[in-house]
Design goal:
The structure is a homodimer. Chain A folds into two domains: about 80 residues, Glutaredoxin (3-Layer(aba) Sandwich); about 150 residues, Glutathione S-transferase Yfyf (Class Pi), Chain A, domain 2 (Up-down Bundle). Chain A is about 55% helix and about 5% strand. Chain A has nine helices and four strands; from the N terminus they run βαβαββααααααα. By secondary structure, chain A is of the alpha+beta class. In chain A, helix 1 crosses helix 6, helix 4 runs parallel beside helix 6 and helix 6 packs across helix 8. The first copy, chain A, has a four-stranded mixed sheet with strand order 2-1-3-4, covered by helices on one side. At the A-B interface, strand 4, helix 3, helix 4 and helix 5 of A face strand 4, helix 3, helix 4 and helix 5 of B.
């Protein structure tokens, strides 16, 4: 199966959670909006799918994945689909839903991270909501980030299976997403993360295990990995970062 | 199967999306935190489950559902589970994921609605972020609410099956949730909703169909339906509502 991934071409964003799963699975995929040549490539192809009146299962927003005739959107939903196909989640119903539950909690965290720099409106520039962003970031770093990371630390502590993974003894897409959370928070809030990492060693261990996987290490070193930048979800504005 | 639903006892909140599914299914359930008598009832029982160190599949936050030995959290995840069990979603894999995709988009909308009155910090009072809430609500009503409602209107338009439902010809949990969105927006933003309803007749039709179902009509007239109030996700602050 060859997949077509549709996402904004210049940022990691929410698309990165899907990219990491595709890369770990060794799946054959085209990052359509980044492909500049060929029929059905580039941003135009993505916008056509978003606006095409014949698309019955229309996506609300990128990322979305084309798998044969199917078009699947919402990051966590795409991962639910890929998890089944590429053994990136348990086969049992209970294990599948638990992995998905963790992913949905990560999705909530991602939204809160986005809102640290855009607390008022995603359609306005950061500079138009800088003061509000400062207030929201203070709360995020003092209260919300610790709450989420405490939660994942607890989940890891209670998983008594061998290995440093969230679910049982095998890697799931939720581990890949938690890796991305740590990487993104390091980029966005390097000072605050010093303290947060010290108090969440199991979360950091997941990050390290994922980074060392051959497939992921290869991906991270490739040009397929878009560098973090200040257009995405994780943005580094020094004035929003707390002292360590 | 008897279910135990755990959610804050004084608000509809995110728990209401689960309650509507349980009610439509005619499921036997206990709203645990609202039950004041009996062993394992009340808020204490909910907090014990949230903080209990023996809970392997710990929830990050309410709502969560106990089904036999299973504990399932994240609203959309609970609905995915209930949809399979109570025929509140298609049986096909493609239909299940499409319904879930719509639900996850509703979940994003719910979060944006919450943030209209709490754009800075959920741990602060509304009065401590009133100015920011005014800015965020203006953007929500001018830009975000129309974008989401346009999307659901488009989905309904493209569903050529008989009936006024989001997916095929049968009611799904996503329709129940869209009903709750319309009800909640009417409560929170009555002036703005006058115009929004006029331009989204198919969304309003879903709301009407759901309200007329015997199970739902019975529920809405009962004391099990907590009235909207200004502690929940949908809050009516007249200063945040736009002129129609």
């Amino acid at each position: 199966m060859t997949y077509d991934l549709y996402y904004w071409p210049s940022i990691q964003g929410r698309g990165e959670f899907v990219r990491l799963a595709l890369e770990e699975a060794g799946a054959d995929y085209t990052d359509v909006a980044r492909a500049s040549t060929g029929k059905g490539s580039g941003m135009l192809a993505m916008l056509e799918l978003m606006q095409g009146e014949s698309i019955k299962y229309a996506p609300f927003a990128p990322p979305f994945l084309k798998a044969g005739q199917r078009l699947i959107a919402q990051t966590a939903n795409v991962l639910l689909f890929l998890g089944d196909r590429h053994v990136l989640a348990p086969k049992s119903d209970a294990g599948r839903l638990w992995t998905h539950q963790l992913q949905l909690t990560i999705a909530d965290l991602v939204q809160e991270i986005h809102d640290t720099h855009h607390p008022i409106a995603s359609g306005l520039y950061y500079e138009e909501q800088r003061e509000e962003a400062r207030r929201r970031s203070n709360d995020f770093l003092a209260s919300r980030a610790p709450k989420y990371l405490d939660y994942f630390e607890t989940v890891l502590k209670r998983n008594t299976a061998r290995g440093d993974y969230l679910v049982g003894a095998r890697l799931t897409y939720a581990d890949l997403s938690l890796f991305q959370i740590v990487e993104g928070l390091r980029y966005a809030f390097p000072r605050a993360m010093v303290g947060l990492e010290m108090s969440h060693p199991r979360v950091v261990a997941v990050r390290n295990h994922v980074a060392e996987r051959a497939s992921i290490a290869d991906y991270l070193a490739s040009s397929r990995r878009i560098p973090f930048n200040d257009e995405g979800i994780f943005r580094h504005y020094p004035e929003l970062d707390a002292a360590p």
